[in-house]
Structure formats: C-alpha cells, structure tokens
Design brief:
Low-confidence stretches: 1-8, 88-105
Distance between the termini: 45 Å
Number of strands: 0
CATH architecture of the largest domain: Orthogonal Bundle
Mean pLDDT: 76
Strand content: under 5%
Structural class: mainly alpha
Length: 180
C-alpha cells in the first residue's frame, strides 16, 4: 500500500517512492519502539501511520534529512510522549513475552526465566521517563549511544550517565539474584 499525498499538496513520484521505501523498512522498528517504550499500545500502528502522514506533510525536511530513521523516530517519540502524558499503559503479558521469549531449557528454568523477564519489564516500566527511554532505545531499538544522544538532543555523556543511572535503579528495584 502506498503513502497518500500530504495535506499540503500532491507528492512527486520520487517523494512517494521515498515514503513507500521508508514505510516498508522502518514500520516494524517504529511499531516495536512504541510497544516497548510505552507498554500496551494497541494503537501503535495508528501512531506510526500518523508519523508517516506528518512526514508526508513535511516532505522537504524528510527528504533533506541525513538520518531519516532518526527523523521518523523523533516524530514517533513525540506522538507517544503526548499520549503518554495522558495515560500510562501497562504492558500485556503477550507484549512482555514478545521480545524476550525463547525456547530451550526445562519447564522450571523457563518459568524462572519468565519470572525474571516479567520483573525486569515491570521495573523498566517504573523508571522515570528519561531513564526508561534510554533503556528502550538502547536495548529494544538497538540504537548506539551516539544515535540516542542525537535523537534526544542531549550530550553523549548525558545519554551514558542516564543508562548508568537506569541500571543502578533497576538493580535496586530487582534486588539480588536478577543478573549483574
């Protein structure tokens, strides 16, 4: 399915091709970010669709961006933060399992692993937004710290120190026996 023309006028064929390619390449990553960063997000696809509509409406900025993935991730992040301020959803069990489930091991080991994953996801959800965001962008979205700093418009040292603070808080919240 192609991207429809923006509010400001019809897109050129090249602009439509650019948006179509970005939709194909980045939608899974953007949807995963929404789900992991903001918990249960049944409307993640709607948020991502709105992101691409806004990109189409400001196609010149997208076209000239050197990091189109970060441009779109910033738009998704802003849309999520607006919604997040109104409500703070809790992850569903299926979403908790989505990233972390894997086979192998016997039933007691899998149950213990699942309990640790559940505790970790709950603890991450309790972190202040500035720390939670760093954890999700690094671990769930796979961004490098330099990319995180660029996306959040913060110095690299701030991104690193927030990750360190998040890890310290998670250790305190989870207590001994939940990894190092």
């Amino acid at each position: 399915m192609g991207v429809r023309s923006g509010v400001r006028g019809a897109l050129t064929a090249g602009e439509r091709d650019l948006l179509d390619r970005l939709v194909r390449e980045l939608t899974p990553r953007l949807v995963a970010y929404v789900r992991r960063a903001y918990g249960s997000a049944p409307d993640a696809e709607d948020i991502v669709a709105e992101t691409f509509c806004r990109a189409a409406g400001n196609i010149a900025a997208l076209r000239t961006s050197t990091r189109r993935d970060l441009y779109l991730l910033t738009t998704v992040r802003n849309l999520c933060r607006d919604g997040f301020r109104r409500r703070r959803p809790t992850p569903t069990p299926d979403e908790r399992l989505e990233q972390f489930s894997h086979g192998g091991g016997d039933a007691p080991d899998r149950a213990a692993d699942e309990e640790r994953r559940r505790a970790l996801r709950a603890a991450v959800a309790e972190l202040p937004e500035s720390l939670r965001e760093i954890v999700v962008l690094r671990l769930a979205s796979g961004l490098k710290f330099e990319e995180i700093a660029e996306l959040l418009h913060i110095p690299l040292g701030t991104a690193l120190s927030r990750m360190h603070a998040a890890i310290q808080r998670l250790r305190e919240m989870l207590g001994p026996g939940h990894g190092s």
